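Posted in: Protein Modeling Q&A

I'm a second-year student putting together a small comparison for a lab meeting, and my supervisor asked me to include a predicted structure for Outer membrane porin, OprD family. I've never done this before, so apologies if this is the wrong subforum. The sequence is pasted below exactly as I got it from our records. If anyone can share the structure token output, I'd also love a short note on what stands out.
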Amino acid sequence: MNRQSCRWLWALPVACLPLVTAAGAQEQATGFVEDASWTLLNRTVHDRRDYRHGSLNGAARNATKPHGERNDRAEEWGYGLMGSYTSGFTQGTVGFGLDAHAYLGVKLDSGGGRAGKARLLAMDNEGHPQDEYARAGAAAKLRLSSTVLKYGEQRVKTPVFGSSDSRLLPETATGLSMTSQPWSNLTLSGGHFTESTDRNASSHDRGFVVNYSNARQGDSFDFLGANHDGATGLKLALYSARYDETWRQHYLGAVYAWPLDDEQALSFNVNVYRTQDTGEARSGDIDNATWSLMSTYHRGAHRISLGYQKVDGGTPFDYVTRGAIYLTNAVALSDFNGPNEASWQLRYDLAMSGYGIEGLSFSAAYIRGHGIDGSHADPNGGYAYLGYGRNGRHWERDLEARYVVQSGAAQGMTFSARYAVHRGNIDQTELDADQIRLAVEYPLQGRF
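Accepted answer (user: helix_wrangler)
Welcome! Here is the predicted structure, written out as tokens:
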């Protein structure tokens, strides 16, 4: 295929990637039903956030309610039921299949003055949480050798466009995706998407989830990427993306593990994003380079990590979909991604399996950011409303405990508890808050 053809097909970038015809996974197909599987995940989440010092005059408690009806406490409790079906592929040179899902969210507790910030529950037009909400979707798929094309509503996981599952229900996206594995250590991927559906949404017609810009949305999102893990201990990822009429973004990621002996190891995690406006520049002028580095020392059941993150540019690091941020200082209450912000993190993880208690783990993290300066942002762009000052600084402390049942009828059941605290000055835009988050998950799965 010549260069001109690939350029014309940028709207469908998967067409420029190889459909490998060598022996691949399709030769092992046993049938649409024979290889099918299903999962049913039960999840309940309680999220309570107490806002301190009248943060921003209550602006984020519930943006759809009048100030007088808002509450200094954001609190939502819900139950989610997520069913997924994954078919096998029909036999033959080209295999056909279907993936489908259905999600249900039920309100257990909240109110019009407390809901909206945690994004667990769907909201009506008057700012009240709905008693229940649901959505469903499906994606058709075909496979040739080791290349899979999929079209429809699906979950995606890449550093530039990714479906988050950090609330009650998961995020999804509608469009065309491709994955191909021409060699065992190389995976190619691409996608053309026309919308994303937020975690607490009950409809599929709201465009894209953009995290920080309030500008008019683009009509599509395209990406190409490659993941390589051929070298011993080293994994590399390279992606390029375009958000229609808004920005181009490139990503480079690397993870390296270096064993020192049977008990000790070092690991390094590097993430680099480069974002520049393009086309109509609907979010305004963007010239942003953001990177993070996390170094971790492993010894038995213990991990100690030290991280650093830097934003170079007059706008915050922004991304489409909730899960498309692989920066190591993006934590519970803040992404630490303000314009020109520098931040560092100290983290400790303990796996109690090293002390005979399988499935139990603890983590503690402290993150501090400073040097936020948004005074040079485009005054007509999509970030001016955020109101960054010239000397923003803030910090966050996160504590978490997690237990996974290892055997018996409740095997796989997961309990987690998190306590997070965030504080900052007026020149940054995150709220002062204390968060308590409790979650329980119980998965069921099987084959037909």
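A couple of things worth pointing out for your meeting: The CA atoms of residues 139 and 152 lie 4 Å apart. Helices lie at 3-8.
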